[in-house]
Design goal:
- By secondary structure, this protein is mainly α.
- It has one domain.
- The chain contains 13 helices and no strands.
- The longest helix is centred in the middle third of the chain and has 29 residues.
- The N terminus is likely disordered.
């Protein structure tokens, strides 16, 4: 039989991720697993936490006088969090495989699915730019003086109800962008890192995870906001600890919500 007559092997079949239903009580398990992975990983995890903290300090210095843009970039910084935490997902994957977590391989974890990770990062970047622009427009509408308000003035306006409409509009618009990013990314980036899934499939699976577990995902999102707020409240120092916990815990969220892939039979 010639080479042309040899039967060709069937192409590998890609199955859509199976999304499970999870209970809100699972959140405590995810947080415990995140803390445990952070402790076991040690310095590699803290390296990523220090990176998040340093990014916060840099933004604070660069945009010290542009407070209308800084809140957008600060929250936008969180919009890009799922992509920036890929290294933490890889460290958790290494621990899951029973190996000693190493920093160097985690720094290039994105290369195993570079095209799809790049597409997804681009989408998050576009959302960040739109949100930053929207933030400036909202500030311009409600603070029409020639001098831009300071951060203290903004906070006082919100909490003393001098600008109640501004507070409602700003948090409503910001909440929309945050909810959008959370919905498309809660398990998408771990999926792309763990299974080499394409960006569209990963985003759809993430949306299904949210629609199938609305209360659990809502509470998990609130936990993320709380941990990040603690980091911000300590002038970004707390991010050194809280961000690795969130990143590692997100890997376990993905493992709980998405069923393990089964080998495809020829």
């Amino acid at each position: 039989m010639s080479d042309d007559e040899l039967p060709s092997a069937p192409p590998p079949q890609s199955t859509f991720p199976v999304v499970r239903h999870v209970k809100p009580s699972n959140i405590l398990g995810w947080l415990k697993a995140g803390i445990q992975d952070t402790r076991q990983s040690g310095l590699p995890s803290l390296f990523y936490g220090a990176f998040f903290a340093a990014a916060g300090w840099v933004m604070k210095i660069v945009f010290d006088e542009a407070y209308g843009l800084f809140p957008a970039l600060a929250t936008g910084f969180l919009l890009l969090g799922p992509f920036l935490a890929m290294g933490l997902y890889d460290l958790s994957r290494q621990l899951e495989l029973g190996t000693q977590p190493k920093l160097l391989p985690s720094l290039t974890a994105w290369r195993t699915n570079m095209l799809n990770v790049g597409v997804f990062a681009g989408v998050l970047g576009v959302i960040l730019l739109i949100w930053a622009r929207a933030s400036l427009i909202i500030f311009a509408l409600y603070f029409q003086d020639s001098v831009f308000p300071t951060l203290t003035e903004v906070i006082m306006s919100v909490f003393t109800f001098n600008q109640p409409v501004f507070g409602m509009v700003y948090f409503a618009v910001g909440g929309f962008f945050a909810a959008l990013v959370f919905a498309i990314s809660v398990v998408a980036v771990p999926l792309m890192a763990g299974r080499k899934t394409d960006a569209i499939t990963a985003a759809i699976a993430s949306i299904i995870a949210c629609t199938k577990n609305p209360l659990t995902m809502l509470l998990w999102g609130a936990c993320i906001v709380l941990l990040v707020a603690l980091g911000f409240a300590t002038y970004f120092v707390g991010l050194i600890i809280t961000m690795p916990i969130v990143g590692h815990a997100t890997w376990h969220v993905y493992r709980d919500i998405v069923e393990a892939e089964t080998p495809t039979k020829p």
